[in-house]
Amino acid sequence: MKILVTGADGQVGSEMVRLADAEFRVAGLARRDLDITDRDAIARRLDEYEPDMLVNCAAYTAVDRAEDEPDLAYRVNADAVGWLGEACDARGIGVIHFSTDYVFDGTKDGAYVEDDTPNPLNVYGASKLEGENRLRAATDRHLILRVSWVFGRIGRSFVDTILRLARERDELTVVDDQIGAPSPAVAIVDTVNELARQLSGRGGWGTYHFAMTPTVSWCEFAREIVAAASVEGLLASQPVVRGVASIERPTKAQRPLNSRLCADRLNTAMRLVPSSWQPGLFAYLGELGRSSVAGASRGVAARPRTTR
User: Does 288 score more than 70 pLDDT?
Assistant: First the structure.
């Protein structure tokens, strides 16, 4: 199977290319290779690569900035997704696309299932929801995978932010009333590889939730990061992590308090059972630790990546 990955310079897209299964022929297009807001360029690239499957990892993900740039957020997350769907449908190409827990308002008591009514609280979530709708209208051969709290080697993530702050401060304050599940990019890629394999054989198109275990607050996640980073030797000392309410840490974009997603449909339809995100966190931090040692051995001061 030939798979074309858009957004190949991002957290998930870069891992899609790096960790591609041997049975797939994967090509990755970074933003410089394909601006998905250029409708004609989409058609040219699809005709050039002739993929069997497109995995769209390109997105506008700056949640707060989207409040000031709604037109750009909608162009990338909605208009462009619809154009990708239309171009793929005309060529018989299946589409795997990522959406977000932020399509929900977070007022439900339990975990959200795929058929719950979306009600985004911010521009980012609304633009991603519109992208879902545009893709559904454009092609039946789509799989929308809603994910939450992604972290990976490329770009900026909450993990990197906490590592930077933990090196600078003796105490961190992190919101403890927003609940969800972290998602290592490598775990998402493992799931997408299996989905692509199954879709090529027996179908299973539709909308699914990707959710790992256990669910935690941002504060609890931060404590896990600090503890694991200390074990990996990434911190000289371990700061105290104190929880605060979201109201005490206002942001330009409102976030849902409940970001829990139910992955039962993915398990039932695709036989993919949710696993723990914690090994992924340790693996990620371990890689950072090894990079730090390698940098020090070359006389290079190890520094954290840009934060999210």
Answer: yes
CA 57 to chain centre: 8
Angle at 64 between CA 167 and CA 277, to 5 degrees: 55
DSSP code of 109? Answer: S
Look at residue 190 and give its three-state secondary structure. Answer: helix
Task: List Cβ neighbours of 49 (8 Å cut-off, separation of 6 or more).
Answer: 2, 4, 27
pLDDT in tens, 3-44: 999 999 999 999 999 988 788 999 999 999 999 999 999 999
199 conformational bin, left if phi > 0, alpha if psi -120 to 50, beta if neither? alpha
Nearest Cα neighbor of 148 from 55, 195, 57, 211 is 211
How does pLDDT run across 67-117, given as a tens digit for each residue?
Answer: 999 999 999 999 999 999 999 999 999 999 999 999 999 999 999 999 999
Nearest Cα to Cα of residue 208 among 128, 97, 78, 76:
97
Active site residues: 124
Residues across the chain: 308
> Which whole number is the average pLDDT over 137-147?
97
**Distance (Å, rounded) from C-alpha 181 to C-alpha 235?**
24
Q: Is 41 exposed, middle or buried (0-12, 13-18, 19+ CB in 10 A)?
A: middle
Residue type, 75: R
Please check the confidence at residue 256 and state whether its pLDDT lies above 80.
Answer: yes
- What is the spatial distance between Cα 58 and Cα 16, in angstroms, rounded to a whole number? 12
